[in-house]
């Protein structure tokens, strides 16, 4: 398959966006994407009528194979599993292009409850708007089966339907949360979090972290205060963008220490995702998604 430099630049963010949503891993997606392009270059041109659809088919099936092989590893993961946060500059034009309904940490965590084929169908249909006929050809299922897969998938994802994706509104809420936390205003903090707010800490067995979810406003706030009290003097936090939403990015000196993302619903924080596993923390804070 002949792919010009212009086509490569056009399809690269598309394939990355599909792969990241499928796998929840930036590094693995980059590897799968490069393999997809490499194999595509080796295909005869006469066999391909629609390059975009064919590349998405190749990328999807490689992601499905990856998820199948990674299943045991994920099942043996120490503590809660989070996708790798995809950090972006807030003013990055690519952020505007993101379909935020399918990018948040909360949504990607829910994707872990889906089979590889269910993930493929919901993304190809809801995010990339392929027809059922095209999807059936991509994943080797009938159109009727694809429709059933999508219906079943949506039932599993009902939890995130009420997630607030209003960036500025969420940013304001998180800023108030930071201010209340720093000033020790417990009363204000309790107004911003739900009574049963849950914190999930992902250390992956690489660093010390809670291996079980922490539930209730009192326990979560006590946990956060405990962590904060043990941080070095050069520890600092910046409010940045991750997965199309405001995110706290924590640094120890110039080293990225952790990220904190939120599930916000009805003007309250219902879940907090603390990612500390160094293997999931990117070296840079910019990116581009379709």
TrEMBL record:
Segments spanning the bilayer are none
> Which UniProt keyword terms apply here?
Coiled coil
Q: Does the keyword Coiled coil apply?
A: yes
> A GO biological process this protein is involved in?
DNA-templated transcription initiation
Q: Known InterPro entries for this protein?
A: ECF_Sigma-70_Domain, NTF2-like_dom_sf, RNA_pol_sigma-70_dom, RNA_pol_sigma-70_ECF, RNA_pol_sigma70_r2, RNA_pol_sigma70_r4_t2, RNA_pol_sigma_r2, RNA_pol_sigma_r3/r4-like
Q: Which top-level group of life is the source organism from? A: Bacteria
In Gene Ontology terms, what is one molecular function of this protein?
A: DNA binding
User: Where do the coiled-coil regions begin and end?
Assistant: 143-170
The record, for SUPFAM superfamilies, names: NTF2-like, Sigma2 domain of RNA polymerase sigma factors, Sigma3 and sigma4 domains of RNA polymerase sigma factors
> What sequence ranges are listed for the domain RNA polymerase sigma factor 70 region 4 type?
106-157
RNA polymerase sigma-70 region domain residues:
8-71
Q: Name one Pfam family in it.
A: Sigma70_r4_2
How this chain assembles, per its entry, is: Interacts transiently with the RNA polymerase catalytic core formed by RpoA, RpoB, RpoC and RpoZ (2 alpha, 1 beta, 1 beta' and 1 omega subunit) to form the RNA polymerase holoenzyme that can initiate transcription.
Q: Give the protein name, as stated in the record.
A: RNA polymerase sigma-70 factor, ECF subfamily
Q: Which organism is it from?
A: Gracilibacillus ureilyticus
């Amino acid at each position: 398959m002949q792919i010009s430099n212009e086509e490569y630049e056009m399809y690269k963010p598309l394939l990355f966006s599909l792969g990241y949503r499928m796998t929840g891993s930036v590094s693995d997606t980059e590897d799968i994407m490069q393999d997809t392009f490499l194999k595509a270059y080796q295909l005869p041109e006469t066999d391909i009528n629609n390059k975009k659809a064919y590349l998405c088919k190749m990328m999807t099936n490689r992601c499905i194979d990856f998820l199948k092989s990674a299943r045991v590893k994920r099942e043996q993961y120490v503590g809660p599993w989070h996708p790798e946060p995809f950090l972006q500059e807030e003013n990055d034009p690519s952020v505007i292009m993101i379909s935020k309904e399918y990018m948040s940490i909360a949504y990607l965590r829910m994707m872990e409850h889906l089979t590889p084929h269910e993930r493929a169908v919901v993304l190809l249909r809801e995010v990339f708007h392929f027809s059922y006929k095209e999807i059936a050809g991509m994943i080797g299922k009938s159109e009727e089966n694809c429709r059933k897969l999508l219906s079943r998938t949506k039932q599993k994802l009902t939890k995130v339907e009420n997630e607030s994706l209003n960036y500025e509104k969420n940013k304001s809420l998180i800023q108030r949360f930071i201010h209340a936390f720093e000033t020790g205003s417990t009363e204000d903090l309790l107004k911003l979090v739900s009574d049963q707010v849950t914190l999930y800490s992902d250390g992956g067995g690489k660093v010390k972290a809670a291996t079980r979810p922490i539930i209730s406003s009192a326990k979560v706030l006590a946990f956060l205060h405990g962590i904060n009290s043990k941080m070095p003097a050069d520890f600092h936090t910046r409010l940045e963008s991750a997965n199309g939403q405001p995110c706290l990015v924590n640094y120890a000196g110039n080293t990225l220490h952790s990220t904190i993302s939120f599930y916000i619903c009805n003007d309250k924080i219902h879940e907090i995702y603390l990612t500390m596993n160094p293997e999931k923390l990117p070296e840079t804070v910019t990116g581009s998604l379709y």
